């Protein structure tokens, strides 16, 4: 098959429960397989966070289960937008029915991956990275106060000291409407895509992630090693990663972002 995939999640060293959820689905038959992968990182306490992230992944899975591989490939952006909207409705509805779940929410980054192209959607600060020809780049854009402050050139010490630095500015379960960022690019032979929660990327630098993602290593070994590294660096949060490797030929050379 032209793609291989692996996902793994860990509670970390300082938490007693895991508020992260992930999914790795393969639609269709080889070699025409479309993969749908995602990572969701819940917020609002262990009960609410767990529920919100699980609802988000379940909403995505529900949308995918009603779609065949060809439709998912051709309508990837629409599928992701619909899944994010469904997840948002489910989380808001569940929170309204249970006072113990008030204020719960979740980030989510998701991708539809096929030889025709890769389409990514994200809300919050769960990230998508692309490793290509020994270079790592973040594809998604964090929806967080500190990232917006950085883009507005606030001094780094002001950002570091701000009480708002960890605030998520866009997520599921907060507002009736969701503004999802969508990114599209064409896969190249050897590409590796990493989706991960902030429990991983907050503790590992881009060079550290790149060094771990050796192209000759099985994805399972890479994924477990990345989470081991995050735990060795403190493991202050749950950490989750999903990896996709494209082993077939790819058509193009450009990466582009599409409007939400």
| Rg over alpha carbons | 17 Å
- 3D shape: globular
Encode the helix/strand succession as letters.
Answer: EEEHHHEEEEHHEEHHHEE
Helix content: 25-40%
- Give the count of structural domains: 1
How far the N terminus sits from the C terminus, by CA atoms, comes to 31 Å
CATH architecture: 4-Layer Sandwich
Main-sheet strand order equals 2-3-4-5-8-11
Average pLDDT score: 89
Count up the helices: 8
How is the CATH topology named? Phosphatase 2c, domain 1
Q: CATH superfamily assignment?
A: PPM-type phosphatase domain
Task: Report the count of strand segments.
Answer: 11
- Which percent band covers the strand fraction? 25-35%
Largest sheet composition: 6 strands, antiparallel
Could you list some keywords that capture this structure?
five-stranded antiparallel sheet, 8 helices, disordered C terminus, six-stranded antiparallel sheet, single chain, 260 residues, Phosphatase 2c, domain 1, alpha+beta, globular
How would you describe what is shown here?
The protein has helices at residues 45-65, 69-74, 76-97, 145-151, 156-161, 198-201, 206-212, 219-232; strands at residues 3-10, 20-27, 34-43, 105-114, 117-123, 127-132, 135-138, 181-185, 192-196, 239-246, 255-258. It has 260 residues and is α+β, with helices and mostly antiparallel strands. The chain has one domain: Phosphatase 2c, domain 1, CATH 3.60.40.10. It starts with a strand and ends with a strand. α1 (45-65) runs antiparallel to α3. It contains eight helices and eleven strands. β4 (105-114) and β5 form a beta hairpin. The radius of gyration is 17 Å and the shape is globular. Mean pLDDT is 89; it is low at 250-260.
């Amino acid at each position: 098959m032209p793609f291989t995939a692996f996902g793994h999640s860990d509670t970390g060293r300082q938490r007693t429960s895991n508020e992260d959820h992930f999914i790795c689905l393969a639609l269709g038959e080889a070699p025409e397989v479309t993969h749908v992968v995602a990572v969701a990182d819940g917020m609002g306490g262990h009960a609410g966070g767990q529920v919100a992230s699980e609802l988000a992944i379940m909403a995505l899975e529900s949308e995918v289960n009603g779609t065949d591989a060809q439709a998912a490939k051709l309508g990837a952006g629409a599928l992701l937008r619909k899944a994010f909207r469904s997840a948002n409705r489910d989380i808001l509805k569940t929170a309204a029915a249970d006072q113990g779940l008030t204020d719960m929410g979740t980030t989510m980054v998701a991708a539809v991956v096929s030889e025709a192209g890769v389409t990514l959607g994200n809300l919050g600060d769960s990230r998508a990275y692309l490793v290509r020809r020994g270079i790592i780049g973040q594809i998604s854009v964090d929806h967080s106060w500190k990232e917006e402050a950085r883009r507005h050139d606030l001094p780094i010490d002001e950002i570091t000291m701000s009480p708002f630095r960890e605030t998520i500015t866009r997520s599921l379960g907060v507002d009736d409407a969701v503004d999802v960022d969508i990114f599209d690019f064409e896969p190249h032979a050897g590409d590796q895509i990493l989706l991960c929660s902030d429990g991983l990327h907050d503790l590992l630098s881009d060079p550290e992630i790149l060094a771990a993602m050796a192209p000759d290593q099985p994805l399972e070994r890479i994924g477990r090693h990345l989470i081991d590294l995050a735990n060795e660096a403190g493991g202050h949060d749950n950490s989750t990663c999903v990896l996709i490797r494209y082993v077939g030929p790819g058509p193009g050379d450009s990466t582009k972002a599409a409007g939400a």
